[in-house]
Amino acid sequence: MAANIIDVEQKFTTDAMQKSELLYARGRILLDFQARPDEAMDFFRQAMEAWPDNDEAARPLADLYISHQRWEEALPLLETIVRWGGRKDDKQELIPYYLNLASIYIMLGSDSAAADAYRGVLAIHPDNVPAVKGLAEVLYRLTDWAEAYTHFSSIIKNHPDSQSKKEKIEIYHRLGEIKLKLGEPRKALKLFEAILEIDSHHRQTLEALITIFTQYEDHEQVIYFKKLLSEVLEGDEKVNVLVEIGDIWQEKLFNSINRVFQRFLYDFDGFSNFHGSSR
After folding, report:
1. DSSP count for the chain of H helices, then E strands
2. pLDDT score recorded for residue 39
3. Vertex 39, ends 33 and 41: CA angle to 5°?
4. Environment class of residue 124 by beta-carbon count within 10 Å: exposed (0-12), middle (13-18) or buried (19+)?
């Protein structure tokens, strides 16, 4: 009955704002009481066409576009919602719209815009973990190493219980990678060691440590971490790593030890000859 009355009223009204409000009300009935979201979406769209400033219609329409994965149609609505939201008292309700906006920007390849959306969340709620983490990831891709490091670190420091073991490993690994990019390998080592305390056979970390110690020419450490790496590999990969260990031992360690031993024999022989001739 109420739906029929609304239909009649919106057909005959000439006021754009009133027509938009009636179309919005019709959409709400379809969405909330009749479980007909596709039809509701059409009414919300008509409400926006009648009066583009209808904030109440924009929000459910954006939500429905997102649920239908119609990202490019949702984007301008979300941008409008957060812009309108700057004039409202309750900023908290804007957080999901900012987060959805950031996600769509990322999908469309606009990390800089996503960073601004995440900052919009943090301006309202500085401890919002999804926004802190999302901003850190975006800044990492934008090669803003210092700020990315700050945000990743704040998750470990301030919100450790919010992350699973797997997520903590991912964050520590990002932190270690950033320190490597900043030319601070010793600090990176400490971060990678923190990962091994959680998972002693984390493959990416073992590979990173092998790379670092290879650069330092610390062959014993390279062998140690390659042995750990071999324990998580199978088939040809495992065989190849074991062969590499053998090669390192032969070329770097055994030959080095052999040279020291030969030098010792040379020195010892010289020492014996000296004492023999002095008699």
Report:
1. 15, 0
2. 96
3. 95
4. middle
CB 114 within 8 A of CB 134: yes
- For residues 91 and 57, the answer to whether their CB atoms sit within 8 Å is no
| 184 conformational bin, left if phi > 0, alpha if psi -120 to 50, beta if neither | beta
Centroid of chain to Cα 30: 38
Residues 142, 150: Cα–Cα separation, whole Å: 14
- Token pair in block for residue 79: 């941008």
Tokens of 31: 């969405």
Average pLDDT over residues 41-51: 95
Measured CA distances, 28 to 6, 7, 68 (Å): 11, 13, 18
Q: Is the pLDDT of residue 153 over 90?
A: yes
The mean pLDDT of the chain is 88
Q: What is the pLDDT of residues 201-251, one digit of tens each?
A: 999 999 999 999 999 999 899 999 999 999 999 999 999 999 999 888 887
Paired tokens of 278: 């002095």
